[in-house]
Amino acid sequence: MTESAKRTASSLKKDALNLPNLLTLGRILIIPLVLWLLDRGAPSDCVVAALIYSAAAITDLLDGYLARRMNIVSLLGKFLDPLADKLLVMATLIWLIPMGRIPEWTVVLLLAREISITALRSIASTEGLIIASDRTGKQKTAFQMAGILCLMLGYPYHLALGPLDLGVVDLVLVGRALVYLSLVYSLVSAFQYLAQFARAIDAQSQE
């Protein structure tokens, strides 16, 4: 192994062991557990799966905060953080299809959007361009996360907010509505990213 290769391996190992990246790796490692619990299918299993999923979502916020607070910016972290999010979301959605909680076409469209935007950002990066996340993309993520949690819980529950009795609410229907809403935001944000890319390319060609 050359000296350069040794330094690269040492740097990657150091990056992998910092706290933000360990939290990110943890999000990836819990995916099989979440899917196993969903596969068992009992209401109690679905509740535990949803709690673990919620904890993973919290670590997504936490690792970003810690990275900024500790001034830790690593190439591995830039790669793993969005990858962990997409793997957790897409694996869960795909697993919910045979359970009858989300239709296939919805997941296909969401997957196509994520793959397309990831590819677009990769192309932009090779051209020295940065396509920043916008408000629509963040709203998409919020609706998507809430919808997936409802779909994971997956059973009718009697809900009450203080003195307000909401009666029995089918969380599958609520979850689908939220995921459909997130799909609308997904498609809108995809067109916005395409517009950003086109403007950036146009500006670059005029320099």
List keywords for this structure.
single chain; 207 residues; mainly alpha; 2 domains; two-stranded antiparallel sheet; 2 strands; disordered N terminus
Briefly characterize the structure:
The chain is mainly α and 207 residues long. It has eight helices and two strands; from the N terminus they run αααααααββα.
Give a verbal description of the structure.
- Helices cover 78% and strands 6% of the residues.
- With 207 residues, the protein is mostly helical.
- The chain has two domains: 7-85, no CATH class; 99-207, no CATH class.
- The chain has a two-stranded antiparallel ribbon.
- β1 and β2 (164-170) form a beta hairpin.
- The longest helix has 36 residues, at 171-206.
- Residues 3-12 have low confidence and may be disordered.
